[in-house]
Amino acid sequence: MSDAKTLILGALVGLVFGFILQKGGLTRFRVIVGQFLLRDFTMLKVLLTAMIVGGIGIYAMRAGGADVALHLKSTAVLGNVIGGLLFGVGMVLLGYCPGTGIAALGDGSRHAWAGLFGMFAGAAIYAEAHPWVKDNLLGIGAYGKVTLPSVTGITPWLYFAVLLAVAFFGFRALRSFERRRQQPTAP
Amino acid sequence: MNPLAKPRWSPYVAGALIGVLSWITFATMDKALGTSTTVVRAVGVAERAIAPEHVANNAYLTKYLGTPEKPKPWFEWQFALVLMLPVGAFLASKLSKSRIKESIPDLWRARFGDSKAKRWAVAFAGGAIMLFGARMAGGCTSGHGLSGTLQLAVSGWLFTAALFAAGVATAYAVYGKKGADHV
Q1: Which of A108, A118, A123 comes nearest B126 by C-beta?
Q2: Do A87 and B133 touch (CB under 8 A)?
Q3: SS3 letters for chain A?
Q4: d(CA B37, CA B40)
Q5: Distance CA B162, CA A187 (A)
Q6: Do A57 and B20 touch (CB under 8 A)?
């Protein structure tokens, strides 16, 4: 595919992605922080549904013989976990992740601008720290581009079946929890 | 009612559409959705304008921007994607007339008061810690949390589990149970 075509497709995907994030409520601080306070499960519902639909589709295309490659990121256990922990702390302080924060600029969130400049600073600082991180952290638990099926030898379909079951029963239990919360019993 | 004019879609519908969007990027573009690499490229290009030598000697930035002899194009598909995110959100908010003007979120105000400086300083610090973590982990909520988990990548699941654990702990440390009841 030509570069120009990829660029245009990328722009279109960004437009639609930003549109969906706003419609899904994920450009809102209250929704994101509410997820981590375990009071608003919008984010988990969106993420888990996207994971299941996206993952089954992509694995099905591959199983059907379509020329669709996986794009895996390397597993470096310590880097993934410490990075993820830092990310979670920062995400709650800002109230957005990078994608939703940048989309939120279009939805009228002004403090997201401060977050964007913070992201620039974080990226710049990481670029300086990378040699140290690479030498001291990224080599620990480095297994390369592995997937849960490749590591365990279990078919991907079992993972998706479990995810589907977790989503179905989890969200059903959540619905009754949400109904209870909405009952005006609390003062 | 016209779905484009609705202020909120069902999270399941939004999630399914994002899943379909990932099919499109994998099948037609041979790419996985991601965001935070673009932040590195943007900051690298800005730094290069000020201190070209410093950037040329930084292994991490040259990985994405190339060397002075062999520069890589920084305006690539993901950069275009990220630039269009706020445009998409803007259109969505306009079509439903649900656009906000938020300098200090209510939840924050209830806990920390009316100081804009305080809120913006914490937002800045949060953004910085978050991006540092994303780059250490090799991706963010898009690259690991969505694209990684849906491919059943070990890295994506590790990252996402850690992010949720730290997020819940931080949220309760910052807002407390009282804050949670304000949501």
Answers
A1: A118
A2: yes
A3: CCHHHHHHHHHHHHHHHHHHHHHCCCCCHHHHHHHHCCCCCHHHHHHHHHHHHHHHHHHHHHHCCCCCCCCCCCEEHHHHHHHHHHHHHHHHHHCCCHHHHHHHHHCCECHHHHHHHHHHHHHHHHHHHHHHHHHHCCCCCEEECCEHHHHHCCCHHHHHHHHHHHHHHHHHHHHHHHHHHHCCCCC
A4: 5
A5: 35
A6: yes
Give the ipTM of the model, two decimals please.
0.97
Question: Helices A156-182 and A42-63: crossing angle, nearest 10°?
Answer: 160
Measure CA of the first residue to CA of the last residue in chain B; give whole Å: 28
Nearest CA among A97, A107, A82 for reference residue A19: A107
Which residues, in sequence order, are CB contacts of B88 under 8 Å at separation 6+? A14, A15, A16, A17, A18, A19, A20, A21, A22, A103, A106
> d(Cα A47, Cα A69) in Å, to the nearest integer?
22
Q: Find out whether B135 and A130 touch, Cβ atoms under 8 Å.
A: yes
Name the residue type at position B10: S
Note whether B65 contacts A: Cβ–Cβ < 8 A. Answer: no
pLDDT (tens digit, 9 = 90+) per residue, A150-169? Answer: 999 999 999 999 999 999 99
Q: How far apart are CA B148 and CA B162, in angstroms?
A: 14
Q: Which two tokens stand for residue B41?
A: 């490229």
3-state secondary structure of B153: strand
Alpha-carbon span A39 to A174, nearest angstrom: 10
The answer to whether the pTM exceeds 0.90 is: yes
B168: contact with A, CB 8 A cutoff: yes
* Closest-approach residue (CA) in chain B for A135: B136
Can you give the pLDDT of all 183 residues of chain B as single tens digits? 799 999 999 999 999 999 999 999 999 999 999 999 999 999 999 999 999 999 999 999 999 999 999 999 999 999 999 999 999 999 999 999 999 999 999 999 999 999 999 999 999 999 999 999 999 999 999 999 999 999 999 999 999 999 999 999 999 999 998 888 888
